[in-house]
Amino acid sequence: MNSQNKLSSEQILGVRVDQVNIGQARGLVLDWLQSKQGKHLVTTPNVEFILLAQQDAKFRQILNGADLNIPDSARIGWAKLMLNKSKVERLLYILTVFLPKLLPDNHFPTVTGVDLVESLASKMAQLNKEKKDLGLTIGLLGGKNNVAKKAADCLAKKYPGLKIAFANDGPQVDQDGREVWSSTSDNWEEERRKNSIVTYSACDLLLVGFGQGKQEKWITNNLKHLPVKVAMGVGGTFDYLSGEIPRAPQILRNIGLEWLYRLLVQPWRAKRQLKLFDFISLVLTAKQVSV
Fold first, then answer.
1. Cα–Cα dist 117/130, whole Å
2. Computed from CA positions of residues 212, 218, 220, 225, in that sequence, does the dihedral angle turn out positive or negative?
């Protein structure tokens, strides 16, 4: 991993975030998918990732060693701007965290995991049609209640030509990225055999939705054994791809208000949104970065 030495990157509170737009991110991943060498990890740092990385050194190490870390939040650009200002200036700009994309000097791109997956699926389907011998495949692993299968069905319908190797909830995974199996079940060995990654078909792009931290650790623990070229942690992306949870209208996404829409349609996220204030506090008190 860590083949990203040509990327322009920023350190946001100790976490490397690559300054790529969606076209650049898609191009990198497609190059890896069509290569016969190496295995690659893609992660999606956002506010919660950066907060978790402050407490979890292993997670931070994984993020900083990944091949591509897309900026999965408009607040990444906000944090970059604030860290280059004095602490007094940061206080003056503090409320801009709620509309970060409206800052005139915020040129840091935002690439959500959902958008990157959609873009990759579209291009992979196109390439499969144009190059009959290519046959790029995708696998979906994680989520709950068969949401990976629902997401796969939606992708296949939306992008004819996309080859889906498998879609499976997969095993339960603990905070260290280790698979957890219930030995109290009468058929736990059969359950493990059916769900183990070794029983899956090989695929070029593996999307893993076990939740932040867990999915990246699971990929790191298993990547060398996986018959894949690129593995990407996608969190709750399957919920959006399947239509289980609606996405914010494009206009709200464009101005950085997707977080508010999510809060309105998922009120239970209020507790998670409070973490934003922890992030603000860290940015306000962090040492100024030299421009």
1. 20
2. negative
Residue 253 located in a structural domain: no
Angle at 154 between CA 243 and CA 145, to 5 degrees: 60
Cα-only R_g, the chain: 19
Alpha helix (H) residue ranges in 35-146? 47-55, 57-65, 74-83, 87-92, 113-130
List pLDDT tens digits, range 130-163.
Answer: 987 788 999 999 998 999 999 999 999 999 999 9
- Identify the domain containing residue 182 by its residue range: 9-73+110-245
Provide the number of structural domains found in the chain: 1
pTM for this one?
Answer: 0.90
Which H/E stretch holds residue 170?
none
If one counts every other C-beta atom within 10 angstroms of the C-beta of residue 258, the result is 20
pLDDT tens digits for 205-242?
Answer: 999 999 999 999 999 999 988 899 999 999 999 999 99
Helix, strand, or coil (residue 116): helix
User: Which uninterrupted H or E stretch holds 105?
Assistant: none
Q: Which helix (H) or strand (E) holds 216?
A: helix 214-222
Domain presence at residue 288: no
Taking the C-alpha atoms of 68, 245, 200 and 187 in order, what is their torsion angle to the nearest 10 degrees?
Answer: 130
192, 181 in Cβ contact below 8 A? yes
Instruction: Assess contact for 180 and 171: CB atoms under 8 A.
Output: yes
Mean pLDDT of the chain: 88
